[in-house]
Design goal:
Largest sheet: none
Helix content: over 70%
Low-confidence stretches: none
Shape: globular
Structural class: mainly alpha
Strand content: under 5%
Number of strands: 0
Number of domains: 2
Number of helices: 18
Mean pLDDT: 84
Length: 432
C-alpha cells in the first residue's frame, strides 16, 4: 500500500509543481518587453481564468471518484461511460463559456479595477485565451479519468508536455513574431489543444480495445447522469466557498496597505507550494478510495487511510521544520527588497504552522472525492467559511489587525480538517 500511494503521489506532485512554473515563465516573458503594462495584463488575465476554471474543478474531481469506483467493480462499460458523461458535461460548460464570453469578460473587468492601458491589453489576452475553454475543460475530465483508472503517469506526462509547449509557443510568438500578451494567450491555447489531442490519442491507443465504448443509452442513463451532476454541484458549491475565502484574503490584505498586501502575497506562496505538494497525496487518496470502495474492500480502505495520513503527517512536519529552519531567509527566496523582508517577520510564524494544521483537510478532500461524498464535503466547507473564517476575522480584526486575517484562515483550515475527520467514519460506512 505504501508503494502504491507513493507511486500515485510522485507523478501527481510532479505534474502539480509544473503548473505554477508556467505562470512564472509567462510573467518572465512579459517582464522583458520593457513595460510593466504587459506584466499586469497577463497577471490580470490569468487571474480571471484561474477563478473561472477553478470553478469547473468539479469536472476533474467528480470524474476521478466515479471512474475509480467503476474500476474497483471491474465494470469496463461503466468506466468508459464515466468518461463520456464527463466529456458531455465539459462540452456543455465550454459551449456556455464561449457563447457568453463577452458578458463574462465585461463582468470580470467591471469587478477588477486596473489602469486603462493594462485593462486594454488584458482584454486582448482574455479574448484569445477564452478559445482554449473546450480543450481545458476536456483535459480536466481526462486527468480525472486517468487518475481514477489508477494511472497517474499519463496525466503527469500530458501536463508536462502541455507546459513545455506552452512555454515554447509563448516564447516564439512573443520574441519571433512580435506579439505581446496575445502571444502568451495564444501559446496557452495551442498548448491546451495539444494536450487534448494527446489525451485522446492515448485513450484510443491504450484503452480503446480494452474498454469498449458503451451504447449511448448507457451513457445517457438518467440516474447516472443525475448522480454525477449532483456530486459535481456539491463540489462546485464547495469550490465557490473556497474561492470566496481566498479572494477575500487577498482583497482584505490590500485594505491594510500595499506593504501588507506584498507581505501576505509573499508568505501565501509558501502555503500554495505546500498545497500543490500535498495535493499529490490527496489525488492518490482519490484514486485508491474510489477503487477500494468499488471493490467493497473495507480492510484495504482502512489500511490505505492509515498509510495515507501517516505520510501526510510526515510531509507536513517536514515542511514545517523546513520553513522553521529557513526562518527569515524564507521571504528572501522571492524578494530582495529589505523593507518587505523585514515586514514579513511578525507574520512568518503563520506560514510555519499552516502545513501541520491543514494537511488533513487536503487528504480528506481526496478521500471524500474518491467516495463521491460531495454533500458532506460541501457542508464542512460551508461551515468552515461562513461560520468560522468570516466571523473570526470580523471579531478579531479590531484587536489584532492583519494577524486576524491569518488566524481566521488558520481556523478555516483547522475547521475543515476537524469537520471531515468527524464525518469520515459515517461517510465510509455509508459508501462502502
Amino acid at each position: 500500500m505504501q508503494r502504491e500511494i507513493l507511486r500515485l503521489s510522485a507523478t501527481n506532485i510532479l505534474s502539480n509543481i509544473v503548473i505554477p512554473l508556467v505562470g512564472m515563465v509567462d510573467v518572465a516573458i512579459m517582464g522583458h518587453l520593457g513595460s510593466d503594462i504587459y506584466i499586469g495584463a497577463v497577471a490580470l488575465g490569468s487571474m480571471i481564468f484561474n477563478f473561472l476554471y477553478w470553478g469547473f474543478g468539479f469536472l476533474r474531481m467528480g470524474t476521478t471518484g466515479f471512474a475509480a469506483q467503476a474500476n474497483g467493480t471491474g465494470n469496463r462499460q461503466e468506466m468508459m461511460a464515466v468518461l463520456a458523461r464527463g466529456a458531455l458535461l465539459a462540452g456543455s460548460a465550454a459551449s456556455i463559456l464561449l457563447l457568453f464570453q463577452h458578458p463574462i469578460g465585461k463582468l470580470a473587468f467591471l469587478l477588477i479595477r486596473a489602469p486603462e492601458a493594462v485593462e486594454a491589453e488584458a482584454m486582448i489576452y482574455y479574448s484569445v485565451r477564452i478559445w482554449a475553454a473546450p480543450a481545458t475543460l476536456m483535459l480536466y475530465v481526462f486527468y480525472g479519468w486517468f487518475i481514477g483508472m489508477q494511472n497517474t503517469v499519463i496525466p503527469a506526462t500530458i501536463a508536462i508536455v502541455v507546459s513545455i509547449v506552452n512555454m515554447a509557443a509563448s516564447y516564439l510568438l512573443v520574441y519571433r513574431f512580435g506579439m505581446t500578451a496575445d502571444g502568451v494567450a495564444l501559446g496557452t491555447v495551442i498548448a491546451q489543444y495539444t494536450g487534448a489531442v494527446l489525451a485522446i490519442t492515448v485513450l484510443l491507443t491504450r484503452y480503446r480495445k480494452m474498454l469498449p465504448f458503451p451504447p449511448w443509452r448507457h451513457v445517457a442513463q438518467r440516474i447516472a447522469l443525475v448522480k454525477m451532476m449532483r456530486v459535481n454541484s456539491d463540489i462546485f458549491i464547495r469550490t465557490l466557498c473556497l474561492i470566496a475565502v481566498m479572494t477575500y484574503f487577498t482583497g482584505r490584505s490590500a485594505y491594510y496597505g500595499s506593504q501588507i498586501l506584498a507581505v501576505n502575497t509573499l508568505l501565501f506562496q509558501f502555503f500554495i507550494f505546500f498545497s500543490y505538494f500535498i495535493d499529490g497525496f490527496a489525488y492518490a487518496g482519490e484514486a485508491l478510495t474510489g477503487r477500494l470502495i468499488g471493490a467493497k474492500d473495507r480492510t484495504g480502505l482502512a489500511t490505505m487511510l492509515k498509510t495515507l495520513f501517516r505520510w501526510g503527517a510526515v510531509m507536513s512536519l517536514l515542511f514545517t521544520l523546513g520553513y522553521l529552519l529557513l526562518g527569515n531567509q524564507l521571504p528572501a527566496i522571492l524578494t530582495n527588497d529589505p523593507e518587505t523582508i523585514a515586514a514579513t517577520n511578525p507574520y512568518l510564524f503563520w506560514t510555519i504552522i499552516i502545513p501541520v494544521v491543514s494537511f488533513a483537510a487536503f487528504l480528506w478532500d481526496g478521500v471524500f472525492i474518491g467516495a463521491t461524498a460531495g454533500a458532506p464535503m460541501r457542508n464542512v466547507m460551508i461551515v468552515a467559511s461562513v461560520a468560522v473564517f468570516f466571523p473570526a476575522y470580523f471579531l478579531l480584526d479590531p484587536i489584532i489587525g492583519n494577524h486576524a486575517l491569518w488566524l481566521a484562515f488558520l481556523l478555516f483550515l483547522a475547521a475543515r480538517s476537524t469537520g471531515m475527520s468527524l464525518l469520515a467514519k459515517r461517510v465510509i460506512s455509508d459508501y462502502v
